[in-house]
Write a structure and sequence with these properties.
heterodimer; A: Aldehyde Oxidoreductase, domain 4; Aldehyde Oxidoreductase, domain 4; 3 domains; 5-stranded mixed beta sheet; B: alpha+beta; 5 strands
């Protein structure tokens, strides 16, 4: 862990601070959603069909209706308000009543005391279906005769974002070389270790329903539940339990589950809990979008990019969910952090009968980054440069103009710095050159051509000495911070100083496990100059704090931290006013809040203890509680042309991966990941390092192993025996480095880190594998069959693989 | 439903559940010790690890009728001592992010360490490799363990 700026002028910001929730989390005391138990609580168990696309002809509950174990069968008919939900397009039924359009769909919920018994009873329900053709290939979704997933929307197109800059035809004509290549990526499951769980309780007083659950975005859930119950937002109270991982995943699915639990709780006037088993979690929850990508690039002999034409097609699955926002980030960032005069990008996302896709850490960036960073390496090799040099030639600098015509000004464009740092600390250039030279001598296997029978002839044997090959790869990115032109960007914070000098704080954003509470507490402790133990972070409850939008888009530190800082600063100014009139000193003096003391900078002998100052303020009838606000500046986007200032600021990152490839088995081991990120000022250094560890590990999983494969809309990998996430043995060393670029927004210029850490790793690993083997791969994940056979073994119907 | 008696965190407990009820649910739902977590239900992820007569077991995959009369230690019982070096090291190394898997991570290592105060790198690797963490806290888990082993930490 290294940061460039000395932390001397700060009391606590940037210094190692142990998060306050560590103790409760390692002793089993932290209360996650299923750790709450309520008097008289009932369970809800889902009823599903075996279809991926079908008309529901009839559902016969007669076999179970009179069973003692059944307290209620909740269906669409029980919903008092909107029967469909959705954050952008309202297209997802809470309970399906007419059609099944994906295999996770739910037609009813059985409610009773015993979950196991309810599950058994659910198999006795007779559901008559009329099967419809299953649309599983997104490439066929826009064909004229394609079956419509949502006939009312008259097309399977969810959104199309075009972007045009300059003239690509001219750019290609002025190029010395052209490369065109297809890439594909897979469905990925978030695989939060805690499966979904929520309890709805009939409200007391004027609150209609109270919900406690594993909810990523309490305000979004509140909005959905209120619309389903047909009541006001204020009548729904959402309390966030300790969240056992989310990574973007406990959003839409939790909104739907909360709505189902709420409908049942109100019907029965009892608490109703839904807790998912792993299999149904993977079956029903949304995934990361698979992308089919075509990149065509034109460039000069010197390696300067001249033109780029990009076509991205994302599989949105059965419901729109966050697809329009996910793919919008793709259109902004699809070229990678490179200056190109002529760009034409088209990003489309379509409906299919596959599992629906939505938000997942990275959010529309890991897919195009895999493609663009692969092709940048191909360009380098074509013109005889190193991957480092090609990025240095084309990478963004201060005042560069993006594909959407946005000038990168107003913040420090640190791409050249992060790139150099990453190359230096990993000895990238010398390692890459030496691996490249030896990979060119490597006899390539032809397993791909003979995958029917892997019996090798004598001259195909690989000398055991040559089995293990080292490779190093590099990837860079720029990433827009926070929501950008996709949403309303502001956050609230509540800060209340108590008479004894302890401080309550609460943000409208929610702890997702990433350590937001610790970061916000550090900010408050810094402003008041008091130890972190004096800061008490309150429970997340939608009735106690203004709606601040969702905790997404790596916006918590930037936006939520900004609100905490503003709010604390307001109270600090009130305290300064009290002190200056008490001491009869001009309030223009600079006051220092440090080590529990407050004093004027010029006259350090005159000081007051923080808690004495608080007493004084209370005696002077000063209000020491405040709800503050932080609003992002204006951004805009023209959807027809793809022009605009998409985000108000950006972060830059570069990761280098070093791998060992077993060319006899296709197995890849990750030896090192050097992760260099400019996330602006680092507030919570331990949290930041943790983000790098987590993001790169998930990124490696995305690049190498994780794969949800669908066949006729059905998922094969329903548990961790087949959906393989990284274990502690898969990656050896991760080396985080932080560059703190100058930034005017955010608390002291702090920006974003959570997602940048994930988006680069798969691309860096893919480039490292090529460096080791001399072969390029175009289809994630680069699992053993892809590396050895250049194809995916399952499902056979989907011909995905570098050999095809 | 039959009665089963077991010792949980050194306290005798009698429970009345079906014979095939997994120990995990007896601990969480019947006895009310919610520190042990459910995640995969198939013995793959390790979130539900407890000690059964001193051995690390995945409580989702052991039924109550196999446990009768035996001693079970859960994270609550294990973490009782504030000087427990494993718990302390986990906190000092800022290991947890979401925190959900750590009761299992800690109990997995604790079973090994109780038996062997000087476990080899391979033994540690083989033990911890089968406990999943999606937040990717593995480097810190490794460091917390190294620290305990280096200092010969007490339990």
């Amino acid at each position: 862990m290294r940061t460039e700026i000395e932390n001397k002028k700060f009391n606590i910001v940037g210094k190692p601070v142990i998060r306050q929730d560590a103790y409760s989390k390692v002793t089993g005391k932290a209360k996650f959603a299923d750790d709450y138990k309520f008097e008289g609580q009932l369970f809800g168990v889902m009823v599903r069909t075996k279809a991926s696309h079908a008309v529901i002809k009839s559902i016969d509950y007669s076999q179970i209706r009179n069973e003692d174990g059944i307290k209620a069968i909740i269906t669409s008919d029980d919903i008092p308000g909107n029967k469909k939900v959705g954050q952008i397009k309202i297209d997802q039924p809470v309970f399906c009543s007419e059609k099944i359009i994906t295999s996770g769909d739910v037609v009813a919920m059985l409610v009773g005391e015993d979950q196991t018994e309810l599950k058994k009873l659910s198999h006795k329900i007779k559901i008559e279906l009329e099967k419809l053709p299953v649309l599983e290939d997104p490439q066929k979704a826009l064909e004229q005769n394609a079956v419509l997933i949502h006939p009312e929307s008259k097309t399977n197109l969810i959104t199309h974002y075009p972007l045009i800059k300059g003239n690509v035809t001219k750019g290609f004509n002025n190029s010395d070389y052209l490369i065109e290549q297809n890439y594909t990526t897979q469905f990925v499951e978030h695989a939060y270790i805690e499966p979904e769980c929520v309890t709805a309780l009939p409200g007391e007083g004027m609150i209609k329903v109270k919900i406690i659950g594993s909810i990523q975005n309490p305000f979004t859930t509140r909005k959905v539940v209120a619309s389903v119950l047909n009541c006001s937002l204020s009548e729904v109270e959402i309390i966030q339990a300790e969240l056992g991982g989310s990574f973007g995943g406990k959003d839409d699915i939790m909104n739907v589950l909360s709505a189902r639990a709420a409908v049942a709780a109100l019907k029965l006037n009892k608490p109703v809990k839904i807790k998912y088993e792993r299999e149904e979690s993977i079956l029903e929850s949304y995934k990361r979008h698979p992308y089919i990508m075509n990149y065509k690039v034109g460039f000069s002999k010197a390696g300067k990019l001249k033109a780029m034409k990009i076509d991205l097609l994302a599989d949105g699955g059965a419901y729109a969910s966050m697809s329009p926002f996910v793919t919008w980030r793709s259109v902004v960032q699809a070229t990678g952090p490179y200056e190109i005069e002529n760009v034409q990008t088209d990003v489309k996302v379509v409906y299919t009968n596959n599992p629906y896709t939505g938000a997942m850490r990275g959010f529309g960036s890991p897919q195009p980054i895999f493609a663009i960073e692969s092709i940048m390496d191909e360009i380098a090799i074509t013109v005889g440069k190193t991957p480092f040099e090609i990025r240095k030639i084309n990478g963004y600098r201060q005042n560069s103009v993006t594909a959407s015509g946005q000038k990168l000004a107003g913040h420090e464009v640190t791409l050249p710095r992060v790139l150099k740092k990453a190359a230096d600390v990993s000895s990238f250039n010398s390692k890459w050159k030496s691996n490249y030279a030896s990979s060119q001598k490597l006899k390539q296997n032809n397993f791909a051509d003979k995958s029917e029978s892997l019996i090798l002839t004598k001259n195909e044997f690989i000398n055991p000495k040559n089995l293990l090959r080292k490779g190093i790869g590099l990837a860079t990115s720029f990433r827009g911070c926070s929501l950008g032109a996709e949403g309303i960007d502001n956050t609230a914070a509540y800060v209340s100083i108590q008479p004894d000098g302890t401080v309550y704080i609460l943000s409208g954003l929610a702890e997702n496990g990433q350590g937001l509470r610790a970061t916000f507490s550090i900010i408050a402790a810094e402003i008041f100059g008091i130890p972190i133990e004096k800061i008490i972070y309150l429970e997340q409850n939608t009735s106690r704090i203004p709606d601040s939008g969702p905790t997404v888009a790596s916006r918590a530190t930037l936006m939520g931290g900004g609100a905490i800082k503003n709010t604390c600063t307001e109270l600090r100014n009130r305290l300064i006013n009290v002190l200056s009139s008490y001491w009869k000193v001009s309030r223009k003096n600079i006051y220092v809040f440090k080590n529990g003391l407050v004093f004027p900078e010029q006259k350090k002998s005159r000081k007051i203890k923080f808690h004495d100052l608080i007493k004084l303020a209370f005696e002077h009838k000063v209000n020491l509680s405040h709800v503050g606000w932080y609003a992002g500046p204006k951004v805009h986007w023209e959807e027809k042309t793809g022009h605009g200032s998409a985000y108000f600021t950006y972060v830059y990152g570069c990761q280098v991966a070093e791998v060992t490839v077993n060319v006899g088995t296709g197995e890849v081991f990750v030896n090192n990941i050097w992760a260099v990120h400019d996330s602006g000022k680092v507030i919570n250094i331990l949290g930041a390092v943790g983000q790098v560890y987590g993001g790169t590990t998930q990124g490696a999983g995305y690049g190498l192993w994780e794969n949800i494969s669908t066949h006729k809309g059905k998922i094969r990998e329903l548990n961790f025996d087949q959906f393989l996430i990284p274990t502690s043995k898969d990656i050896d060393k991760i080396h985080p480095y932080f560059i703190e670029g100058k930034e005017s927004y955010g608390p002291w210029g702090a920006k974003s880190l959570g997602e940048p850490t994930l988006e680069l790793t798969a691309a860096a690993i893919a480039n490292a594998i090529t460096n080791a083997t001399g072969q390029r791969f175009f289809n994630l994940p680069l699992n053993i069959e892809e590396v050895l056979l250049r194809k995916k073994l399952y499902p056979e119907s989907l011909k995905r693989g570098s050999a095809s | 439903m039959p009665n089963y008696t077991l010792i949980v965190n050194n306290k005798k407990q009698t429970v009345n559940v079906d014979a095939d009820t997994p120990l995990l649910w007896v601990l969480r739902d019947t006895i009310g010790l919610t520190g042990t977590k459910y995640s995969c239900g198939e013995g793959i992820c390790g979130s539900c690890i407890v000690h059964l007569n001193g051995e690390a077991v995945r409580s989702c995959s052991v039924s109550i009728n196999e446990v009768s009369g035996k001693s079970v230690i859960t994270i609550e019982g294990f973490a009782e001592d504030p000087n427990n070096s494993i718990i302390k090291s986990w906190i000092e190394e800022e290991v947890p992010q979401c925190g959900y898997c750590h009761p299992g991570q800690i109990m997995a290592f604790a079973a090994l360490y109780k038996k062997n105060k000087k476990p080899s790198k391979t033994e540690i690797e083989e033990t911890m490799n089968s406990v999943l963490c999606r937040c990717g806290t593995y480097p810190r888990i490794k460091r917390a363990i190294e620290k305990v082993v280096e200092h010969g930490g007490s339990l």
